[in-house]
Amino acid sequence: MIRFYFHPTPNPAKVSLFLEETGLDYEIIPVDTRKGQQHDPEFRKINPNGKVPAIVDTDGPGGVPATVFDSTAILLYLAEKTGRFFGQPKDRGEVLSWLMFIATGLGPFSGQAVHFQHAAPAGLDYAVNRYRREIDRHYQVLNQRLEGRTYIVGDECTVADISAWGWVDRAGHVFKKPEDPLGDYPNVKRWFQAMDARPATARARKVGADIDFKKTNDEEAQRALFPSNYPAV
């Protein structure tokens, strides 16, 4: 059994998709980040960094429970556990390279673009320009990679595709462009539409849909999401 600590944001969405693709038995444990539940001492025992997603695999290696946090680490762990979505052995280097491209580039820059366009105070034009341009650059790299390709690496879906889907799914919010946000990246758009048509993707979108997460961005939410912006009490 996988105990899946979840909030409906891009990084947990990647894990949702992997779990639905593989049919692993899992239990959702909500972590309402706008209420600050990611900072609760019990959750910090699972992820000292205080972020979702995280998992506890009650049937870990040797039958010993395994705790894993960070979406990329979780995807790697589950790919090794199931023997799925790691690609062919000859492609392993490329799978890891593109997975890290998403983990260290496309994902974090998308998150910063969202923050400075939607959450930060107005007037930070340099930061907005910086992250918007970096996101465009990363999408251009991915668009070029997908020229003539069905998947990011090899001839089958891998953890690289699953990881990329989590953030590309939010491109409209990232680019602050709800209408056709992938229009400038036709290869990414084609790839995303194919990923979105997978039966597991429809199931992944429903994960946690029945949970009433807080939606308002009041002061409690701001302090919970961005604690470093506030003096310690």
TrEMBL record:
Provide an example Pfam family for this protein.
GST_C
Q: Where is the GST N-terminal domain?
A: 1-86
**So which domain of life are we looking at?**
Bacteria
Residues of the GST C-terminal domain: 88-225
Identify the PANTHER family for this entry.
Answer: DISULFIDE-BOND OXIDOREDUCTASE YFCG (PTHR44051:SF19), GLUTATHIONE S-TRANSFERASE-RELATED (PTHR44051)
Q: Know the name of this protein?
A: Glutathione S-transferase
What is the protein's species of origin? Herbaspirillum hiltneri N3
